[in-house]
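Honest question from a wet-lab person: if I give you the sequences of every part of a complex, can you actually get the arrangement of the whole thing, not just the pieces? Trying it with mine:
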Amino acid sequence: MGIEPTAPGAPVRDADTCAVGRQVALIDLLDRLLAGGVVLAGDLVLSIADVDLVRINLRAVIESITDSGVGSWEGT
Amino acid sequence: MDEQLCYAYAVVRSSDPPERTALADVRGVAGAPVTLVRSGAVAAVVSAVPREEFSEAALKVGLEDIRWLEATARAHHLVIETLAAHTTVLPMRLATVYLDEDRVREMLRERETTFTTLLDRLADHVEWGVKVYAEVPPASPPDPVAAGRPADEANPGRAYLRSRRHQRQEREDAWRLAEEAVRRTEEQARGLAVERTRHRPQEGGLAQAPGENVSNDAYLVPRRLSEEFRSRMLHAADGLHGIRVEVTGPWAPYSFTAPLAPDAQEEARRR
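Yes, you can. This is the full assembly:
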């Protein structure tokens, strides 16, 4: 497939030394990446719209990352 | 040469793309360069990934492997963070994979209006995580002998019951304070945050912070109000014994990517 390289030979920056690569807690990240983000059925429909997959199999480690929802809180 | 798939990280405005130099330093989840696929007013940020690692079957295996999951999540996050430093970003859920760039373009074309609406709403806003923790005494009964006072030695049963009551009272007090702390964070967020999403409180092996997580909220806050928001949250539980508020961020708006319900949109317009 035709993905063109942005800059061939550009150095790969180590995440630890990159200013935007600050280390965040994995659990906070997974809350957002597995329950947040635009859900599109990609071509491989698995996506993680079906979070159950992860919840079930990683229960011992993650246990509780599930659906989140916009609550009834009024921001005004 | 392995067959390649197209991993999509986020949607941005094609009129306001991050400079090529910004993305040049970043590699995607499988180490490939990160590029843009444009369609009309929007563009998807993508990179090539090997089919052998990102096919449906392979993803099922990968997602069960905490090391693979962490590496992929962090690589995804690095791309999002890099983008967010330059432009408004609409993150996609982890592991959104297309067969090729044409399919990505098709998806963009179908949802262009939805995406531009969301990007408008997220422009100049950041996400903050606000978690309230409480030191809740354990529910297990105390050792009746250790808990008994000398005066009760003649009646250990009564001493035991009293200590159970005392303990239950302590737990109730801790939860009451926790609820008060959550109420205060909500109150303090008013007038600063424009939206809130509640994540499930964190528990299990990955939840390593001390205490019990009683709330795990995300707020969408105008960037210019960020510091005030953070500082208000950090002080929201001042004076509440055994309660801690943890603030994370600023995050790209991961938790605010769902289209608003029509009535909420109406409300947002009135604001």
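Two things worth pointing out. Residues 156-189 of chain B form the longest helix (34 residues). Chain B touches chain A through 90 residues (CB under 8 Å).
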